[in-house]
Each structure stands twice: as C-alpha cells, then as structure tokens.
Amino acid sequence: MASPELGNAGDSSTHNLSSGMEDGSVPGTNKPCPVHVSAEEEAKRSFRKGIARHDYVKISVPESKVNHLPTEWWKTVIAFFYAAFNLVLTTVVLTVVHERVPPKESSPPLPDKFFDYIDRVKWAFTVTEVNGMVLVAIWLIQLFFFKYKSIACRRFFFLIGTLYLYRCVTMYVTTLPVPGMHMNCAPKLQGDTHAKFQRVLQLISGAGLSITNSHLLCGDFLYSGHTVMLTLTYLFIKEYSPKSFWWYHLMCWLLSAVGVLCILVAHEHYTVDVVVAYFITSRLFWWYHTMANLQTLKCSPNNYLTNTWWNPLFNFFERNVQTSVPCSYSWPITWASTCLKNPCKKYSMVQSSRDE
C-alpha cells in the first residue's frame, strides 16, 4: 500500500506536467514548446513586426497616362458650326415669320398681367442689351484663362445651338401679335427673296440687337432670345468659376436678373416669352451637366435622360470626358508664363545643396 507522501508526490508531478503542457514548455526544462499556428496568422504577425520596425520597401506605382479631360478641339469646331447654323436658321425663320405677323391695328397686343401693373420704360431694353454684352464679355475673359476651355466652349456652343433650334420651332408654329403698340415693324416684302436675304445679312451683322438698328423684324416673341443669352451666360460663368467667388456670382446674377426684368419693363416681350425662355434654358443646362458630370448616368439603363433626341450628340461630344471639369485656370500663352518665373530659382537650389 502506497504511503501518503508517494501519493502527494505523484499528484504534484502530474500537476506540473499538465501545467507545463499548457504553457507550451517541456517538463524538466525551461525551453518552450513550438506552438503550431496557421499560415495566415504567421503572415499577419510578420507584417505587424515589419511595420513596427519600419522594415518595408515603398513601391512607387506609375500614374495612369490616360487623359480623362482631352481637349479635342476638332469637336469644339463642330459644335461651333452647329451653333452658327442654328443661329443663321433662326434669322431665316424670323424673316419668314415676320410676313405672317398681323398688323397691330387689327390685332392689338394680348392681355398681360405684368403690363397691367408696370408702365413701359423706353430705355429699359437698352439696359438689357448692355447687360447681355457685359456678361458675354465676362464669359469670354473667363474662358481665356480657363484651363479646359475647349470642353467649356463645346458645351456652350451645343447648348446655345440647341436652344435657338427650339426657338425656331416655337416661333414658326405660333405667331403672336406684337406685345406693345410702340413697336414699329419693318414693312412686309411679299415674296421679294433678294430683299429677305438682305434682311438676314443685316440681322447677322448686327447680332440681332436693337442698339445696332439690326432688329426691325417682328414675330420672334416666343420665346425670348435675350433671356436665353442672359441666363445661359450667367449659368456658365457660375459653373466654371470657383464656388468661393460668391461676390463674383452675385454680380453676374444681378446683371442677368436686371436684364431679364428690363425686357418686361420695356414691353418688348410677353411675360410668357421670358418664363418659357428661362425654364427651357436652365433645365437644358442642368440636364446636360448632370449627365456630363455623373459618369454612371452615361451607361445606366435606367437613365431616362438618354431618351432625348440630342443624346447621340451628347455621347459624341462627351464620350472621352471621364470626370467632372475642375475650376482650374492657367496662363493661356506658354511663353508668357515661362518669362514670369524666377530664373535664379534653380541656381539657388543647387548652390544651397553644395554649401551643405
């Protein structure tokens, strides 16, 4: 029969053996036993140790050479001819519609609520045209320094051409009487083709402005071309300028808003002409730029904006523009920006490195 001392010794040895196995060490020695871990855990440990010791190699990945904003000036030229064709078409349609405008003596102006409350101011339409020319000049100066001017010009030409194409349709299908008894329309030519051609040239040479005495025809009321230009130039100025230039945007908005208001104060258009012009211009601008800036919409099967008739033209102009256009500006002439640089900058850097 075993003694109590032997039993206690056996229990203690068994306890030491089990505890040694749990600690991962061999009984009777101080060496730890190898603990088997998975390859994934071993890789994680090695990665953490490498980061802790900064024992890693930086691998430089070459940047993609794909140009997400190609200039494609040839497309801009096509957009320019598209706009020019529709502007000329507008003058041709106007000469045709002018022959159908009823005399103001037999067809007086239609009732208009704005005219009921606001009397006509003679010089107001001059303010409209001056504001329009100022906005166009501001937009051209901004374009001159804009880095991606080819894309911005292409979009401007396409939108102005499409808006005036719509205007040709609305002018031709419905002929409104003159909005005021003060309007003096040029005499009708009754089929004189040569004289009509001369009128087209006169309109084009004077940009269709009243201050140049080139706009003597009636019938281009629905919708207002002056409102189109005032609204579109402001939208482009705001879109392609820094968001922080709130004072710049406010100034251009005031020029546009005052110009549109003066159209009504001068009684040169019905209120519906101005409202329709603003609605069509702003929506067409926002639809186009939404599709252009969101790449997912270009190929989305659920994008109902692709049902527009101008979607093939949009795909042609915007196919290679793969990101939104940033508000980036640069000096347009290369040699001028080079001359403005400090010629001693590189020399001073080399000299400082030698001194060290």
Please write the string of helix (H) and strand (E) elements: HHHHHHHHHHHHHH
The major pleated sheet works out as: none
The rounded distance between the terminal residues' Cα atoms is 90 Å
Structural class: mainly alpha
Give a quick rundown of the structure.
This protein is an all-alpha fold. The protein is built from 14 helices and no strands.
Textual characterization of the structure:
The structure is a single chain. The protein is an all-alpha fold. The chain has 14 helices and no strands. It is elongated. The N terminus and C terminus are likely disordered.
List the helices and strands and how they pair.
Layout: H1 4-23, H2 39-52, H3 73-98, H4 113-117, H5 124-145, H6 149-173, H7 193-205, H8 225-239, H9 246-265, H10 271-293, H11 295-298, H12 311-318, H13 334-339, H14 345-355
Helix pairs in contact: 3-6, 3-7, 5-8, 5-9, 6-8, 8-9, 8-10
Structural key phrases:
356 residues; 14 helices; elongated; disordered N terminus
